[in-house]
Amino acid sequence: MIPLRDENPTRTFPFVTLGLIVANAIVFYYELSLAGQLEKIIHLYGLIPYEVVHFNNLRSLVTSMFFHGSLMHIIGNMLYLWIFGNNIEDRLGHINFIFFYLLCGLTAAIGHIIVSPFSKIPTIGASGAVSGVLGAYLVLYPRAKVLTLVPFFYYWRLVKIEAKWFLLIWIFFQIINGSMQFAMETAAGVSEGGVAWFAHIAGFFGGIFLLKLFDNRKYRYV
After folding, report:
1. Looking at the domain assignment, is residue 51 inside a domain?
2. How distant, in Å, are the alpha carbons of 76, 131, 144, 184, 204 from that of 127?
3. Distance from first CA to last CA of the chain, Å, rounded?
4. Mean pLDDT of the region 137-163
5. Which tens digits make up the pLDDT trace of 50-103?
6. Does 125 fall in a domain?
7. What are the phi and psi torsion angles at 147 (to 5°)?
8. Residue 111: which of 131, 92, 93, 97 has the closest Cα?
9. Do residues 45 and 67 make contact, with C-beta atoms less than 8 angstroms apart?
């Protein structure tokens, strides 16, 4: 499923959300300009669990959020951030949203490290932080409609889905894929890289719980 927009207007302009998208775009352009040095830069700024566990390159807990592995990687993350992030920024306020976003990214990174503490494979991407935004959206706006492109066999259809169903389906597949990957890597005794599913999962649930620190208004959990 590909979200295109939500029917959930905001009262304020999402300066921070737009700023984060621009920052990620600038970093990605920088990556494209590196050519043969890209692998070295990714190892320098990407999150390597083994290094962080040994208190090395701790800055990567933050810098890794702004690097992406491909054009589709950054487009997907920024699309989700734009659709769901503007409402969370509107609710929390611009400054609070900055700290909320970064803390969700840190929570995602810690979740990934806990599952793969000995991995020496760099992890990059804003997915963990964006996942936290999705978790907060699930709590705050479960009934908002999301215009979604959904595959039906050989065709695609535009469908309006309530946010709670869209996001619950999304986290369900993160858990399924993460569990399968963890089982295969455990059986093989080695991490083969790929998607850091548990970063998504940790970020999502981190966003749900961190929301209470930044939003004092009353709401019901789904």
Report:
1. yes
2. 9, 6, 22, 22, 10
3. 21
4. 92
5. 999 999 999 999 999 999 989 999 999 999 999 999 999 999 999 999 999 999
6. yes
7. -75, 120
8. 131
9. yes
Domain assignment of residue 219, yes or no? no
Q: Is the pTM of this model over 0.85?
A: yes
Q: Which two tokens stand for residue 1?
A: 């499923």
pLDDT, tens digit, 9 for 90 and up, residues 177-220: 988 888 877 776 666 667 888 999 999 999 999 998 988 665 55
Q: Is residue 34 part of a domain?
A: yes
Q: Enter the tokens of residue 168.
A: 């619950």
Helix or strand (DSSP H, E) at 79? helix 71-92
Here the CATH number for the domain that contains residue 96 is 1.20.1540.10
- Split into its structural domains, the chain has a count of 1
Question: Domain range for residue 127?
Answer: 2-214
CA dist., res. 124 & res. 89, Å (int)? 23
Using the Cα atoms of residue 204, residue 13, residue 93 and residue 98 in order, give the sign of their dihedral: positive
Return the DSSP state at 203.
Answer: H
Are residues 77 and 3 in contact, defined by beta-carbon separation less than 8 angstroms? no
